[in-house]
Specification:
The protein is an alpha/beta fold. The chain has helices at residues 14-18, 20-30, 67-80, 93-102, 117-124, 137-147, 195-205, 218-230, 243-250, 262-268, 330-343; strands spanning 5-9, 35-39, 54-57, 85-88, 109-112, 179-183, 210-213, 234-236, 255-259, 274-278, 297-299. The protein folds into 2 domains: 5-155, 3-Layer(aba) Sandwich (Rossmann fold), CATH 3.40.50.2000; 179-343, Rossmann fold (3-Layer(aba) Sandwich), CATH 3.40.50. The strands form 2 sheets. Strands 8-7-6-9-10-11 form a 6-stranded parallel sheet, with helices on both faces. The chain has a 5-stranded parallel sheet with strand order 3-2-1-4-5, with helices on one face.
Length: 344
């Protein structure tokens, strides 16, 4: 197939959008003649700034592209880009409606993300389950392009040169120390390590390393500010940088400690080692950060909580499992962090 322009649809969430980047790097490296039109929310556009032959088109679902009429207007805009193929990496109601508008355009090839809902449901049910790793989400993305006629190998992925570090004067980062990013929050409580335990990790690591905190939202920023005031070598990047500058800072880290959440994926995109902490969710569901070793995943104790995982997204917590992540000892997190930092 001689497609020249591929529309790539992925509107949210931040972590899922971030996972598109390694796939698109491989796609462009393998097929340099392609042009990619990445359709995603405006606040995520900076993730794709590094990519050649790529245009980011950002719909406004709160205004111009709201509702059925707005989606039709978006369709007309996408059609004007003269696509030869559509890769739907989201497969939700909005993208299904958009694809329906393209049905009469039979010459435009279309491929859709296969989510594997049945297999995920089997892994999150209470009983009679075996934790067999599912196809990683990032490989599911790659399969979409293969169905369009563009097979790629993620094994051939190459990290680009790290972007320039943003101005760090406001944070007063210690250039003589290694930098450890810590993102202690998650979208759902079932995925969040207890803050009192994470504080022990922060308190220990900041003795010898520069700890940089990441998070979103006013409540989260307030908690990070508490730690910043309590410890000498701890700073809160969230209060200083917008996402584009935050990405450039994340790229400079020597280690990221994250939940099953977006910051782990953002760091992995730059080849940063990522320690991921897992509670109601589990690495076998396929959402681990790109290129990380299995030993970097620290999971809640299934001897104590045998029904884990209980949820794909962390939004469902089984009764009695509210404190499952307390079974991850802060000492284990610290020891793994020290091991990785010593190796690097």
């Amino acid at each position: 197939m001689s497609a020249k322009n591929i529309l790539v649809l992925r509107f949210s969430a931040l972590g899922d959008v971030a996972m598109c980047l390694p796939v698109l790097r491989c796609l462009i490296q393998t097929y340099p003649e392609l042009h990619i039109t990445m359709v995603t929310r405006k606040r995520f556009a900076s993730i794709f700034e590094e990519l050649p032959n790529t245009t980011v088109l950002s719909p406004d679902f709160n205004d111009a592209h709201k509702g059925i009429g707005g989606l039709y207007l978006l369709y007309k805009t996408l059609l004007a880009a003269k696509p030869n193929a559509i890769a739907d990496l989201h497969n939700v109601l909005r993208t299904k409606i958009l694809r329906s508008y393209f049905v009469p355009k039979f010459w435009i090839r279309k491929a859709v993300l296969v989510k594997g809902r049945k297999a995920k449901k089997q892994l999150t049910r209470a009983r009679q389950k075996t934790l067999v790793p599912l196809v990683p989400q990032i490989h599911r993305y790659a399969q979409v392009f293969e169905r369009l006629g563009f097979p790629i190998s993620l094994d051939s992925h190459e990290f680009p040169p790290k972007p320039l570090c943003p101005n760090t004067e406001a944070l007063k980062l210690d250039q003589s120390k290694k930098w450890v990013g810590i993102a202690p929050f998650a979208a759902h409580k079932g995925k969040q390590y207890p803050l009192d335990l994470m504080q022990k990790v922060v308190a220990f690591l900041q003795q010898d390393y520069q700890v940089i905190l990441f998070g979103f939202g006013h409540k989260e920023r307030a908690q990070l500010d508490v730690w910043t005031k309590a410890y000498k070598n701890v700073v809160n990047a969230t209060s200083v940088y917008a996402l584009d500058a935050e990405l450039r800072l994340i790229a400079q880290l020597d280690l990221m400690i994250s939940m099953d959440s977006a910051n782990g994926h953002l760091a992995a995109n730059y080849g940063v080692p990522v320690i991921s902490l897992w509670g109601a969710t589990h690495p076998c569901l396929g959402f681990t950060p790109f290129g990380q070793t299995e030993t970097n995943n620290l999971t809640a104790d299934r001897q104590l909580f045998p029904f884990l995982p209980t949820s794909v997204y962390g939004n469902k917590i089984r009764r009695g499992y509210e404190d499952a992540m307390r079974s991850i000892d802060p000492k284990v997190v610290i020891e793994l962090a020290l091991e990785i930092l010593d190796e690097n």
